[in-house]
């Protein structure tokens, strides 16, 4: 994990705004005791959750997308660390481990790949490096029976999260086989063909490699479902979905019923909880939508899944504070902060 930066208490406090008569999460949150003894430090930590950042947009660019998903981690952290520590959420149940920095990979690609096609190929090769390092860390965290909460980057990181959590939970003796389920609140299936790693096929690779047992997508947009992917999904008994149109346009089910169906479909196994921010209306992301879920739907989703699932990990991705084309939204980080705090409160109950 040569690209990982561990945080110490000073790193945390540098983003925490201290104020008399108040206590912020940044003052209570745990950090790693000894980065050179990661496994021993995790074993000793009383934290149930490990928060890490993957601020990269390599996987999105490899999928012909708009870069910028590397910009959400710091705004999120600045908001999250300044939440009030109170009886609703104390903060000491979370260990803030640090973040990955794959900037050197991106720089090398920009310097050496000259044509568009060369860059796409190079980005897809770079995603494999990201896969390996993220998988290694998630395997270590889950093998110590802690829940990773992963923020930032593209949806390509679903693959190493599923793979790493499957291996880690199996090593911990919690799974007979290295396989988990996943629920994904997303406008897209991210089940495109395995043509090279990118943000659009993480679940395909996880399923083909045998680490993903059941997969359920909530809020899938009919307009962005390729026909070949549609056929693969409907012919696979281990994959289910409920479209956005069936929930909000045809009103065949309520949103709550759709999420309940997903948790029921995946209930017999540990489940990764995925949330792609491009499903939330007007939220800055690599594929911003004018028609989508409201923020309160996303908050309800994380609350319901936290209470109803045996959670393997939480992954909130594809959001941006600033996109490569210049669009900005300073509120995205605060939205992610709400989502993480909602999960923590519900899962603790």
Order of helices and strands: EHHHEHHEHHEHEHEHEHHEHEH
Q: What share of the residues does DSSP label as strand, in percent?
A: 15-25%
β-strand number: 9
Rounded radius of gyration (Å): 19 Å
Query: What is the oligomer described by this structure?
Result: single chain
Whole-number total of structural domains: 1
> In what order do the strands lie side by side in the largest sheet?
1-3-2-4-9-8-5-6-7
CATH architecture: 3-Layer(aba) Sandwich
Describe this entry's structure for a reader.
The protein has 349 residues and is α/β, with parallel strands linked by helices. It has a single domain, classed as 3-Layer(aba) Sandwich (Arginase, Chain A). The chain has helices at 9-13, 25-28, 38-44, 58-62, 73-80, 103-112, 116-143, 158-171, 202-208, 227-234, 244-249, 255-265, 295-308, 332-348; strands at residues 4-6, 49-53, 94-100, 147-151, 180-185, 212-220, 239-243, 270-276, 310-317. The protein has a 9-stranded mixed sheet, sandwiched between helices. α5 (73-80) packs across α14 (332-348), α8 runs parallel beside α9 and α13 (295-308) packs parallel to α14 (332-348). 54% of the residues are buried.
């Amino acid at each position: 994990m040569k690209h990982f930066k561990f945080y110490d208490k000073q790193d945390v406090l540098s983003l925490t705004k201290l104020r008399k008569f108040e206590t912020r999460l940044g003052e209570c949150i745990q950090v790693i005791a000894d980065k050179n003894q990661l496994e021993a430090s995790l074993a000793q930590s009383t934290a149930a959750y490990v928060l890490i950042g993957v601020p990269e947009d390599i996987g999105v660019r490899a999928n012909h997308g708009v870069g910028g998903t590397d910009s959400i981690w710091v705004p999120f952290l600045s908001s999250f660390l300044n939440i009030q520590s109170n009886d609703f959420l104390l903060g000491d149940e979370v260990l803030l481990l640090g973040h990955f920095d794959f900037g050197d990979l991106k720089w090398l690609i920009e310097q050496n790949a000259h044509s568009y096609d060369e860059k796409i190929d190079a980005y897809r090769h770079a995603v494999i490096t990201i896969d390996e390092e993220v998988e290694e860390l998630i395997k270590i965290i889950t093998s110590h029976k802690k829940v990773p909460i992963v923020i930032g980057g593209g949806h390509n990181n679903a693959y190493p999260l599923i793979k790493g959590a499957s291996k880690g939970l199996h090593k911990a003796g919690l799974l007979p086989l290295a396989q988990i389920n996943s629920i994904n609140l997303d406008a897209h299936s991210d089940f495109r063909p395995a043509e090279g790693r990118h943000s659009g096929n993480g679940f395909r690779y996880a399923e083909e490699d045998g680490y993903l047992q059941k997969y359920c997508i909530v809020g899938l947009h009919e307009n962005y479902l390729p026909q070949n992917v549609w056929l693969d999904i409907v012919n696979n008994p281990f994959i289910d979905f409920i479209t956005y149109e069936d929930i909000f346009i045809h009103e065949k089910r309520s949103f709550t019923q759709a999420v309940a169906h997903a948790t029921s479909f995946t209930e017999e196994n540990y489940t990764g909880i995925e949330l792609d921010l491009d499903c939330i209306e007007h939220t800055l992301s690599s594929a911003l939508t004018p028609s989508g879920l409201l923020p309160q739907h996303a908050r309800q989703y994380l609350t319901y899944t936290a209470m109803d699932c045996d959670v393997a990990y939480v992954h909130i991705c594809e959001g941006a504070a600033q996109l490569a084309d210049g669009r900005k939204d300073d509120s995205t980080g605060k939205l992610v902060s709400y989502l993480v705090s909602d999960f923590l409160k519900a899962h603790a109950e």
